[in-house]
Design brief:
Oligomer: single chain
Distance between the termini: 21 Å
Number of helices: 10
Order of helices and strands: EHEHEEHEHEHEHEHHEHHEE
CATH architecture of the largest domain: 3-Layer(aba) Sandwich
Largest sheet: 5 strands, parallel
Length: 309
Amino acid sequence: MKFEGGNPTGTQKDRIAKALAEDAVQKRYHQIAVGSCGNFGAAIALAAKDFNIEAHIYIPTEYHTRRIEEIEEKYRGTIHRVVGTYENAVEKCSEDAEKNGWYDANPGFPHTTEIALNAYGQISKEIYSALGYAPDIISVPVGNGTTLAGIFNGFFKYFQEEKIKKLPKMVAASTLRGNPIVKSFKNHYQIIKDLQPSEIKETPYNEPLVNWHAYDGQIALDAVYNSYGFAEYASDTRMIEFSRLLKREEGLNVLPASACSLAVLSSVLKKNHSNGTKSTIVAILTGRVPYNGHQRRNNHMNNTSANQK
């Protein structure tokens, strides 16, 4: 297991946030903006504070998370509320960034994608350093797909440099209730297709994964195909089960959505590796449960964790 919860704000998002803030400063921006529902916003706000620039975080109106207090009071970021979904927050943020001359840190743009791939490629370096070789399979929770694409990109560079002889199979793990990367793979689409917004069903546990448009979904889908990997869903019940298992067996307070990587592996490997084949398998655990942090949506989400987006 590769645990990313030890990063400053508790998720892998700190890796890309630091890189984006550094890029903003190098390009002489004084403000950086991103659409988020919690975790990415907190990571950007912390990075902006460290680089002494202003952070503007756009969050859907209906989301209420302790991350907002953290962003405003601890990291001195500015919160902007947007009616609608995460995708609406990203769209509004990008419009305002262009209008006001802010650095746009949202996913899906060439500059942010390149930076993200390099930043998340560091995870590949750390896995290779720990093992001394490339694992056979790497399972990654996917929302927008950026983390999976970055990890694959890192190992692909090692493959090109002939440091490794084979690429690990990339597994895209996500929620049963709506993710275009997994659905596109299971439908054998080479070109990713957005979901209808009505297809997604958010819960207190799957929200970091569920979306109708994955901003870096195409490169994530390409990574799955190019590595001869696969994509699969996990139910809320299974994600919760493995989150509790990790706490009991490993002492890790992992978000249920982060435990999706293990939940998917458990079901798939039982079916496909019943012949006793041995493999080296890595599950990426993308975030911890925030300390004393809860998130509510429409006043009915209780005792749930902050968002990974």
